[in-house]
Amino acid sequence: MTRAVSACLLFLALCLLTLIAGACSGGGDNGDDNPFGIKSEVVTPAANADAIEFAPDGRLFFVEHWTGAIRVVGADGKLLADPFFTLTDVTAGIGWGLSGLAIDPSFATNHYVYALYTQLVRAGPPTVGKPVVVRLTDNNNVGTDQLVLVSNLPETDPEHPFNANGSLHFGPDGRLYFTLGDYDKAQALGPTGKPLSQDLGTPIGKMLRVNKEDGSPPPDNPFVRDPSADPRIYAYGFRGAINFTVNPKTKRIYAIDNTGLTCEGVVTIEAGANYAWPNVGTFPFNDCAIGRTQTPLGYLTQQGRRPEDFQSAPGSTGTEFISGSVYKVLGDSLVVCESGTQLLRRLVLAPPNFDKITANDVIAKNCWLDVTVGPDGLVYYANLTEIRRLPRPPESPSPSQS
Question: How many domains does the chain have?
């Protein structure tokens, strides 16, 4: 086993211990100690909500990582008793399960909801699954007409059942984007003889871009004319099944990339770009510049650590852009949820290109999983047992007043 792979396994083990500790201590937030004076509030109980998304009518949809259930909080703020839909063939573990959710940009007319999950292929031990993307149709808070859009993705390795499927979002172009990790097999070789995340012949370690109608590759994907490449690949060279978001001003995609325990950074995702994993030097990766052709906008670390320090990474999960018209005290910024520290941070990016981090501050505690922005412009985020909200600060004007 290589040292890089051992580092990934250690990282996953530490994450599991952190999750267990958090589950035992409960999901409550007894007060946010931050310089902005914003105290979060509970929206609804939610068990391991890996992904949370709003429909334009104000309903909040979220997934339960372990159970396969997709649930709905009505526009009145009440959690519906029955799940919207339950994927009965889901299998879950660290880095696989029901992990992605997306609401169609045309939801008001087509009522489509999309999910990314790990489908059970063979019951264990050892258990084997594979990532699948499905589409559901909302019919009065019930998911109907399940349609499989993408199913021809690699099965998990029984010896490395980690780090498979990740997040699912619509891009600014109306296409579906989703991510796969390196399956915890950093040095394994793909069909053209390169490490999996570097091998264009496999979707492992990639961001994929597909048509929402049928899961097919759009004709302008960067490798669609390469006969040896998976035509769905949009970008490659990732260790984790990264989460990502779109800057509403520039329409560029932003993500948090890392090499496990070290060198976690904010990157913009470009078509056809290579994000270097696993060609990043020798563990413990004490030089964050090695192998990178896409330099991060800045690095994220645990308090008092340098990016290149072992175990410096905060374990970022969800990320989203917020508006200063709603949170005047925070300004236009990128918020990031960190599973390793359980903190919600705001990152201020320097205009006009938004390509440099100029401020990094804690704005809430007990943020573990996903973060999103509602139709009201407010920030909603998930920990292990609930979804919380950052209310509008008193000094911030409403959108109609700004």
Answer: 1
- Cα angle vertex 119, ends 241, 158, to 5°? 75
**Torsion, CA 163, CA 335, CA 255, CA 359, rounded to 10:** -120
Range of the domain at 179: 61-241
Looking at the domain assignment, is residue 372 inside a domain? no
How far is 209 from 218, CA to CA, in rounded Å? Answer: 7
Give the Cα separation of 355 and 369 in Å (integer): 25
Q: Which of 253, 261, 270, 160 is nearest to 204 (CA)?
A: 160
CATH number for 72 = 2.120.10.30
Exposure string over 265-275, b if 16+ CB within 10 A, otherwise e: bbbbbeeebbb
317-344: pLDDT as tens digits = 999 999 988 998 899 999 999 999 999 9
Looking at residue 23, its pLDDT comes to: 38
